[in-house]
Structures are given as C-alpha cells and as structure tokens.
Design brief:
Blueprint (H helix, E strand, L loop, with lengths): L13 E4 L4 E3 L7 E6 L6 H12 L1 H6 L2 E7 L3 H11 L4 E4 L4 H5 L3 E6 L2 E6 L2 E5 L5 E5 L7 H12 L2
Parallel strand pairs: 3-4, 4-5
Antiparallel strand pairs: 1-2, 1-5, 3-8, 6-7, 8-9
C-alpha cells in the first residue's frame, strides 16, 4: 500500500453520505479534516472508534475540525449505524473502494486464517487548505479520537 504524500494536496473525492447526499472533500476547505477509513459499520472495533469520535465532537468543533468516516458499506447500512450509535458526524459510502484505493488503504488482509481484500484502518489529517499533513497507519480504536486530537493540537493549531 502506498499512501498519498504528506505536504501535498489530499486526493479529492465525492461520495454519498449516510443520507445519500453528495459530499466532497472540497466542501470543507477552511476546516481541518480527519478522514478515517474503517472496514465495516456496526462491527465491534468500528463501533468503539466511531463512539469515541462521537463523544469528542465538541473538542473537534473547538479545533475547527470535521471528521469523516469512509467504508465500503452502502448508505443504508451507514444510516443504520448512525442511528443505532447516535453518531454526530458524516459517514461516506465507498462501495467500489475507489477512494480507498486512491488513499492506499485498500489491499490484502488476513483474518482468522482467511485472506481477502478490504480496507486497512487508517486515518488522514488534512489542514484547512486541503493539504495532507499526517497519516496514522497504526490506529488503536479505543484511543483513536484522543490520538487525533493530540496531533491537531500539537501540529495544526
């Protein structure tokens, strides 16, 4: 997997959100953007990660930061995840995994002896001008929100 280069513009995208509205990275110029890729809505690790972000919304707002979660799930699955967990941020559907591929997070995975292609849990932090500033390739679902906040506070504010 090859991630986009930090210090350069983040790869552009437009995807459908959980409400089937088109959302583009360009919509958020002027804000820091956390783009986190996760394998599948409503699974244990993804739920822990999403709930940490949900509970940190006020902190992200104070840091002029929006969070976007991207998975290969269909919008209808995303709306169920959003409603069930009372999520307060945008989830995007990348069913054909084209955006995941452009960010270098789609590839071979191994789980319980099975080999398959899927999303590698990875986070990208983009500054207010659309420049990719940081890639978090090793994400801990339980502390993800804290790790992202720490990076933004120490490097973008």
């Amino acid at each position: 997997m090859k991630f986009p280069e930090t210090g350069k513009k983040a790869p552009k995208f437009t995807l459908l959100d959980q409400n089937q509205n088109k959302v583009s990275l360009a919509d958020y110029l002027g804000k820091n953007v956390v783009i986190y890729f996760y394998p599948k809505a409503s699974t244990p690790g993804c739920t822990v990660q999403a709930c940490g972000i949900r509970d940190s919304k006020r902190v992200f707002d104070k840091l002029n930061t929006v969070v976007i979660g991207i998975s290969p799930d269909a919008p209808r699955r995303l709306i169920n995840f959003t409603e069930k967990q009372d999520l307060n941020f945008t989830l995007l559907s990348d069913e054909d995994h084209a955006v995941a591929e452009s960010y270098g997070v789609w590839g071979e995975k191994k789980f319980m002896g099975r080999v398959f292609d899927g999303i590698h849990r990875t986070t990208f932090i983009v500054d207010t001008k659309g420049v990719l500033r940081h890639v978090m390739a090793k994400v801990k679902t339980k502390t993800h929100h804290e790790d992202v906040v720490e990076y933004i506070e120490n490097n973008l504010i």
